[in-house]
Specification:
This protein is of the alpha+beta class. Among the domains are: about 95-365, Spore Coat Polysaccharide Biosynthesis Protein SpsA, Chain A; about 450-580, Trefoil (Trefoil (Acidic Fibroblast Growth Factor, subunit A)). It is about 30% helix and about 25% strand. The chain has 17 helices and 25 strands. Strands 13, 14, 16, 17, 18 and 25 form a six-stranded antiparallel β-sheet that branches. The protein has a five-stranded mixed β-sheet with strand order 3-2-1-4-11, sandwiched between helices. Strands 5, 6, 7, 10 and 12 form a five-stranded mixed β-sheet that branches. β8 (about 275-280) and β9 (about 285-290) form a beta hairpin. The termini are far apart. The structure holds ligand LR7 and manganese (II) ion. Ligand LR7 binds near residues 258, 312, 339 and 340. It is found in: Golgi apparatus membrane.
Length: about 575
C-alpha cells in the first residue's frame, strides 16, 4: 500500500529509486516492530520465562559454580568434622570470642568453608535412591542478624555442596538488619561466585527471627521451602529425604535430625541412630523426649519418618503453599522464641503433622547465649514470655492456665491483637488442645488433672505455714526437695501433685525416699519421672513413703532446708500435710 501511494505522487523517472527507498523504509518498520514486541512491549515474555528458556536450554543458576565434593582424604583444620585446638595468642582470642559471639570465631576462621564432614546417616539411608527429576525443588531460606562471616558462609557452602543441583531452586539469605559492614557489599560480591543461586534479601528494620522467616518464605519460588539457622552445616544427602517426604505428603512439616557442632572447637558429632522427638514444658519451652512405645510399634523400618509432637524450631522443610495455608508464623511474635511450639500445636491440631526424618542430618552450632540484642518492640525484654502468651491464648484453650501457673505475671499483660490468629484457627477448623494432649502427647503429665490431690503441700507448726518448695533448684537434674514459708497466690515452685499412680511429683520430676541402711530417717530426692518414682500413700493427713514406711516430716527443719522422712507419728504436727490452693 505504501508503494502504491508513492507511485501516484512520484514521476516515472524517479520510480525505481523510490521503490528501493520504500522497501528499505518498510523493512526498517518491520525490524523495529519485531524488536519492540519481543523485548519492550508490555506483552514481552516475563523474566521468568526467559530464565526458564535458559534452564530448558540446559543452563540453570549455579551451573557455573564448581561444587566441592566430600573427600575422606581431605586434611586440615576441622576436616572430617574434627575439633580444632588453639594455643597461645590465638587461644586467648578464641576465649574472647566465646564472650562476644558465644562461639569460637578464631576456630571457625581456620576451617575451610568447604570442610568435609563424616556422613552422619545410618547405612540403610545411604542405599535409598531418589528420582531427582520427579521431586519438587527447594528454596533454602537462611535468616541471620549479624552472624559471623565464616559460620554464615559455611552454612551456604555446605548447602550448595551437598544438595543435588536438580533439587536446589535457590538459597535465600535473609539479612535481618545486620549492622556489620562485612555483611553488606562484601557479601553481595562474595555470593556472585554462586552464579545466581544465592539471593540476598535485606530488611532495613529489625524483624526478629519469626518475621524474618516469613519474609524469607515469601521470597521463595521453590515448591518446597527449607529454613536453616545461619550457623549450620548440611550433611551428606540431607535434602533428598526432606523433599521426598513432602512430595509424598504435602501437609507434613519435616525436620532433619539436628547434629551437634561444638561452639568452642567446631567438632561435628552426628548420631546415626538418633531417636529423640520434641516435647514441651508447661512453661512453654522445647524439650527432647525419648521415642514413645506406640511410635516404635508404628514404624516399619529404621529409615521411616518419626512423628514428633513438637520441633526445635530452626531447621524444617515444608511445602511452601501448605506452610502459608496453615498460617505461616504469627506475624506479631517478636525477636526470638515461641514460634516453634506455636507451629507444632497448630499443625497437629489443624490436620497436618510434624515429623523427623532419620535420613536427613544437619549440624547446628549450639551457643550458650545470643550475640544480638534480644529487646523487642517497645523495649520488651521478655520476648519469649510474650510470644508464648500469644500461643497459649490462641491454641491452648483452658490449658493456658498451666502456662500462667509459671507466668502469673503475664496474666494481665497486653500482648497485642490476637483476632487474626483466632480467626485462622476457626477458618481451618482446628481441633481443641485437649485432642492434642490425648492423641499426640498421651503421656504428658497435667499437674491438676488425673491426680488424687494438687496444690501447695502445707504443714502448720507453731502457727507458721510451711510448704514443700523446690527452692529454685534446677529441675532438669535430681535435687533434694526443700521447704519454705508458704507463698500466697500459689508460687509455681510450691505446686505439687499426688498423682493417681501414687507418685508425688512435679511436671517432670518425681519424689524418691532415700534412707541409708539401719537408719530411721532419710531425705526426699526428686529425679526425672522417666525413672519409675516411688509410691506415696495418704494416711489421714500423713504422707507415707511406701517402700520405707516412713512419713514426710519437717521435724527439726527450718525454712530453706531439705524436707525429711522419718518414723510415722500420727500426733506430730510436723507430719500433717494438706494440699492447699493458695
Ligand atoms: O532477631 C533475630 N533475627 C534473626 O534473623 C534473631 C535471630 N535471627 C537469626 C539468627 O541469626 C539465627 O540464624 O535467627 C536464627 C536463630 O537464632 P539463634 O541461633 O540465636 O536461635 P537458637 O538456635 O538459640 O534457637 C532455636 O529456637 C528459636 C526460637 O525462636 C528458633 O526457632 C531458632 O531457629 C532455633 N534454632 C534451632 O532450632 C536450631 C536447632 C537447635 C536445637 C535443638
Ligand atoms: Mn541457632
Amino acid at each position: 500500500m505504501v508503494v502504491r501511494l508513492l507511485c501516484r505522487y512520484l514521476s516515472p523517472r524517479r520510480f525505481s529509486s523510490a521503490v528501493q527507498a520504500g522497501v528499505f523504509f518498510v523493512g526498517l518498520l518491520l525490524v523495529s516492530y519485531l524488536v519492540y514486541s519481543t523485548f519492550l512491549a508490555p506483552g514481552a515474555p516475563p523474566k521468568e520465562v526467559v530464565l526458564d528458556r535458559i534452564a530448558r536450554a540446559g543452563r540453570k543458576p549455579g551451573d557455573a559454580y564448581a561444587r566441592v565434593r566430600d573427600d575422606t582424604s581431605r586434611r586440615g583444620p576441622g576436616e572430617q568434622g574434627e575439633a580444632v585446638r588453639l594455643s597461645g595468642e590465638e587461644k586467648a582470642r578464641g576465649e574472647e570470642d566465646m564472650k562476644k559471639w558465644f562461639m569460637n570465631v578464631v576456630v571457625s576462621d581456620k576451617i575451610s568453608l568447604d570442610r568435609s564432614i563424616r556422613d552422619a546417616r545410618r547405612d540403610e539411608c545411604k542405599s535409598i535412591s531418589y528420582d531427582l527429576s520427579s521431586l519438587p525443588r527447594a528454596s533454602v531460606v537462611i535468616i541471620f542478624t549479624d552472624e559471623a562471616w565464616t559460620p554464615l558462609l559455611r552454612t551456604v557452602h555446605s548447602v550448595i555442596n551437598r544438595s543435588p543441583p536438580e533439587l536446589l531452586q535457590e538459597v535465600i539469605l535473609l539479612d535481618d538488619n545486620s549492622q556489620r559492614d562485612e555483611l553488606k557489599e562484601k557479601l553481595d560480591e562474595y555470593v556472585k561466585r554462586f552464579d545466581g543461586l544465592v539471593k540476598i534479601v535485606r530488611k532495613n528494620v529489625r524483624h526478629g527471627l519469626i518475621r524474618a522467616k516469613l519474609a524469607g518464605a515469601r521470597e521463595a519460588t521453590g515448591e518446597v521451602v527449607v529454613f536453616l539457622d545461619s550457623h549450620c552445616e548440611a550433611n551428606h544427602g540431607w535434602l533428598e529425604p526432606l523433599v521426598a517426604r513432602i512430595a509424598e505428603n504435602p501437609s507434613v512439616i519435616i525436620c532433619p535430625i539436628i547434629d551437634y557442632i561444638n561452639s568452642k572447637d567446631f567438632s561435628y558429632s552426628g548420631d546415626p541412630y538418633a531417636q529423640s522427638v520434641g516435647g514441651f514444658t508447661w512453661s512453654l519451652h522445647f524439650t527432647w523426649e525419648p521415642l514413645s512405645e506406640s511410635e516404635k510399634q508404628r514404624r516399619k523400618s529404621p529409615t521411616e519418618y518419626i512423628r514428633s509432637p513438637t520441633m526445635a524450631g530452626g531447621l524444617l522443610a515444608a511445602n511452601r503453599e501448605y506452610f502459608f495455608h496453615v498460617g505461616g508464623y504469627d506475624e506479631e511474635m517478636d525477636i526470638w522464641g515461641g514460634e516453634n511450639l506455636e507451629i507444632s500445636f497448630r499443625v497437629w491440631t489443624c490436620g497436618g503433622s510434624i515429623e523427623f526424618i532419620p535420613c536427613s542430618h544437619v549440624g547446628h552450632i549450639f551457643r550458650d547465649g545470643h550475640p544480638y540484642n534480644m529487646t523487642g518492640r517497645g523495649g520488651n525484654k521478655d520476648v519469649h514470655g510474650t510470644n508464648s502468651k500469644r500461643l497459649a491464648e490462641v491454641w491452648m484453650d483452658d490449658y493456658k492456665r498451666m502456662y500462667y501457673l509459671h507466668r502469673s505475671d503475664l496474666k494481665t499483660k497486653d500482648v497485642g491483637d490476637l483476632s487474626e490468629r483466632h480467626k485462622l484457627r476457626k477458618d481451618l477448623q482446628c481441633k481443641p488442645f485437649k485432642w492434642f494432649l490425648d492423641n499426640i502427647v498421651p503421656d504428658k503429665f497435667i499437674p491438676d488433672e488425673n491426680v488424687q490431690e494438687y496444690g501447695m503441700v502445707q504443714a502448720v507448726v507453731g502457727g507458721q505455714k510451711i510448704c514443700l518448695d523446690t527452692l529454685q533448684q534446677d529441675e532438669k537434674g535430681s535435687y533434694g526437695m526443700g521447704i519454705y514459708f508458704c507463698q500466697g497466690g500459689g508460687s509455681s515452685a510450691q505446686l505439687i501433685s499426688l498423682a493417681r499412680d501414687g507418685r508425688l511429683r512435679r511436671e517432670t520430676s518425681c519424689a524418691h525416699g532415700v534412707v541409708r541402711e539401719r537408719e530411721t530417717s532419710g531425705t526426699v530426692v526428686m529425679r526425672n519421672c522417666r525413672e519409675k518414682g516411688d509410691e506415696w500413700k495418704r494416711e489421714g493427713d500423713q504422707l507415707r513413703h511406701a517402700n520405707s514406711g516412713l512419713c514426710l516430716s519437717i521435724r527439726g527443719i527450718k525454712s530453706g532446708e531439705k524436707v525429711i522422712i522419718e518414723v510415722c507419728d500420727a500426733s506430730a504436727p510436723e507430719q500433717q500435710w494438706k494440699f492447699v490452693k493458695s
